[in-house]
Amino acid sequence: MTVTDAHAQPEHYADYLRMLARSQITSRLQAKLDASDIVQQTLLQAHRNQHQYRGQTEAEWVGWLRVILANVLATELRKFHTQARDPAREMSIEASLDHSASRFDNLLAADQTSPSERAGRSEQRLQLARALAQLPNDQREVIERHHLMGWTIAEVAEQMQKSKPAVVGLLFRGLKRLRECLSDQEGSTHATKSSG
Q1: Which CATH class is domain 135-196?
Q2: What is the pTM of this model?
Q3: Burial label, 111 (beta-carbon count in 10 A; 0-12, 13-18, 19+)
Q4: CB-based contact 144:19 (threshold 8 Å)
Q5: Which residue ranges make up each domain of the chain?
Q6: 67-114 pLDDT tens trace
Q7: What sign for the dihedral angle of Cα 76, 81, 83, 85?
């Protein structure tokens, strides 16, 4: 996907942005904040402010979307914390999003450094986000908290009010299902390319 394609279809990144947004919404605020609403606002702002984007690569485009997501999250979180605008807090959200994105990339295969490998990695990132979105909520949540947010099994179990063995089971089944989803996506991608 080229940067021009990305501009034309920012919703292509919705699952990825939703996953990042969920990583920032604490369980205390989950009833009040919906990651899908946050992403919708992010994509709307990206569309409105597209003329301000100055990057050249897809990585820069995704980074720009993450900055917008951080700003939207900061605005929404401020509503619940009734604090004035705090640039330090907004930078903290942006840094936390970058950290989550980095952990997300670590779920992908070995380091890829050539331009074609980086382009492939970008597509893999989007496929992984789409596959995560297809998982049952509990499995997705366990994978996101453990692998993307870096929580221990004990922390995930406590947060989700489940036993450690239950969380391990969800993680195992979720990762198995995630591999199946990715394999299915890869199969459909190859079928589409060979028929085109």
Answers
A1: mainly alpha
A2: 0.64
A3: exposed
A4: yes
A5: 1-111, 135-196
A6: 898 889 888 877 776 554 455 544 565 655 565 566 555 555 444 455
A7: negative
